[in-house]
Please model this.
Amino acid sequence: MPVPPLPALTDRLVGPADGPVGRPLLAALGRLTSPLAADDYLCLIDPLLSARHPTGRVTAVRSEGPRAATLEIRPGRGWSGHRAGQYLPVGVELDGVRHWRTYSLTCPPGGGRYGALTITVQEEPRGTVSPHLVRRTPPGSAVRLGPAQGEFVLPEPPPARMLMVTAGSGITPVMGMLRTLALRPSPAPADVFLLHCAPGPGDCLFRAELADLAARLPWLRLHLRYTRTVGRLTAEHIAVACPDWRARETWACGPAGLLDTLEGHWAAASAAERLHVERFRLVPLDAPDAGASGGRMRPRPPPCCTSVRRRVS
Model:
């Protein structure tokens, strides 16, 4: 059951921390609480009041199939926003140790219902954090938040024609883009062709919502490919499904084999500059610095725009 958010205590008392009342009042409190900061005391009242250590509260958990769940997270005062397609470092404390993982934000900028952020987590059976988030995180739980990161984003304005190629959980950053475009007023924000692969219908994240979006949005065309039945996606399949793929700005996210195939095919067609790829790399993730913009690495220079996420389960 979703938990409707309540206004932050300090916002009700003094207004926003960066407002004309909140800023000088917190500065005065800081002088009184020195050597500690006022923020150190506020987070004892409610972790969401901390600006130095951004925190969110889980307000709802929705099943997305047998091994996945969407978490709605109401961010506290330290949250600084995101762009469609970016990912979120999430800190979870297990047995006294905080573990950081990154998950794509699937909500539009500004959040979804009640301004909540959403992430969709696919459970890795041998993982540490993903099973905890999917199966053992009830509404009311607090999680630490890092700053939104990544350059695999929806540009402003969006290009007139877009192709999105995803597989498995690679649909999650693209879902944030689609939900953002769906909120735009008429006329159609773009001509979007989405080609998504999953092992079968029961494994397809957001299957019902994707079908609904495609049915009511004239600018969105959806092609679902179930690989358990028809095999893995190839460049030839893309050419048949979307004949004008060379003319489209393309975003792709999924397994390494698929992305390698796409990069080679786009390069051979002299269209590499139109391909934007996000890869997941299994390496340890350090605790994020709220004041830093790190987390993105380039394993190779352009022509392909490649955003590499550090990801563990």
Remarks:
- The radius of gyration is 21 Å.
- Residues 165 and 252 are 5 Å apart (CA to CA).
- The mean pLDDT is 82.
- The longest strand covers residues 55-63.
